[in-house]
Amino acid sequence: MAAESSPFSLANVRLFIAFRVFFNARFYYPVFTILFLDFGLTIEQFAILNTVWALTIVCAEVPSGALADILGRKYLIVATSLLMVMEMGLLSFVPLGNSSIIFWAFLINRVLSGLAEAMASGADEAIAYDTLAADGKADAWPKVLSLQMRLQSIGSIITLTIGALIYDPNLVNRLLTWLGTALIVDQQTTMRFPIYLTLIMALFATITAFRMEEKKQDMKGGTVFRTLAALKLTWKAGLWIARTPFALSIILIGMCYDHILRMIVTMTSQYFRLIHLPEASFGVIGSTIALLGLVIPKIAEHMIEKNSPAVNMYWVTGIGLIGLFGLTGFFPYWGLLPMAFIFIALMFVSFFTSHYLNLITESHQRATVLSFKGVAFNLAYGWIGFGFALLIGHQRTTLQAMHPVWSEAAIESHAFMKAIGWFPWYTIICLGLTLIYCRYRLRGRLERKQVN
Q1: Contacts of 121 (CB under 8 A, 6+ apart)
Q2: Do residues 356 and 285 touch, judged by C-beta distance below 8 A?
Q3: How far apart are CA 304 and CA 281, in angstroms?
Q4: What is the fold, at CATH topology level, of the domain defined by 2-212+219-447?
Q5: I need a labelling partner for 194 at 20 to 30 A (CA). Which of 71, 94, 122, 205 fits?
Q6: Residue of 152, 123, 126, 124 lying closest to 138 (CA atoms)
Q7: What is d(CA 73, CA 121) in angstroms, rounded to the nearest whole number?
Q8: What average pLDDT does the segment 254-265 reach?
Q9: What's residue 354's pLDDT?
Q10: What are the phi and psi torsion angles at 115 (to 5°)?
Q11: Helices marked H in 275-365 — which ranges?
Q12: R_g of the chain computed on alpha carbons
């Protein structure tokens, strides 16, 4: 009886967790920026490509969520996994030597990756949550989310460590020598190894997606009818969010935290370099930080049971600001501690946003509502990325005028450090304005309402 009462006895729940682990097992994450550069791209092209990625998600997020609610969530999950196979396959076999071909290959890769992220957002959560609800186990969602995040963290530990190690040709060549082979590989060969392994994970994600089951939607009419139905559902979901103060507050406050913290996380490799950490250690550091993912979800689960949403928000604010102010010191080696606070705050944001939003959203529009959340988060992320690029450019110009004898590398580093110094103050202003608006919409209910 105990096994039957467990939410993990449901096949869709287990497959949801497996899909999340495989889809997010990206072996190239610890060398993400370096990977682009070693393929022959410039920093400016790297920024452009990530802007394209964010815009693709923004454009595809809500339509994909609506289609998931109309056509079926499994349809989009399968499409997501196939897009991942295509994006990784493209980088696995693109020829080197022609910068134009490489740029266009990465551009297509970013579009495919953005589409995959947009389609994955909400659809897999919705099918798992609805499976729980249909079996009378909706209250077990925090436990499912907690286990999913912890297993994903274990996967991150493995992928970050292996990805960084196999990217280094010196380490790979030493391993080959130890194995007794005379084979020697260079950087142009090893830089594809993390991509090959991620492609394998994409194939596992595809197999997992095909094994999911979903109750068929009883929809009549052809493509035009279903498209109109999807647009109508999108409009209704948008109106529901606008008219539901708590849902709107969850999205806005989560967006405020997410785009700032995620921008910092994106730039960890540059930050680590400036606090004098060797590049070979980045994968190990990333794996160590990922260990937090084994603990934070259980803490978040306890906080949801004991605290109101407002109290949990205050905790995230305190942790996030400690991390942001700590980063500005660029303390050698010790600078790892504030970065750990950033990761902890981001994990809390992801957990709390998913729990509270799923809790108050009805099944028929859950994927669409979650897609609206994804749009808001990625639109803000694109905004802060664009703003950060402008800030870096301004700081670089100022430093060049003040210190004409400095090298380009020194100017780049100091411009980055000065730009990071703006983040805590931007956070305080952004969060302050967001809370004023949310408090007005909620009219004080945020403090009084305990969501169980």
Answers
A1: 57, 61, 64, 65, 370, 371, 373, 374
A2: no
A3: 35
A4: Growth Hormone; Chain: A; (1.20.1250)
A5: 122
A6: 126
A7: 11
A8: 91
A9: 85
A10: -65, -40
A11: 282-290, 296-306, 309-327, 336-360
A12: 22
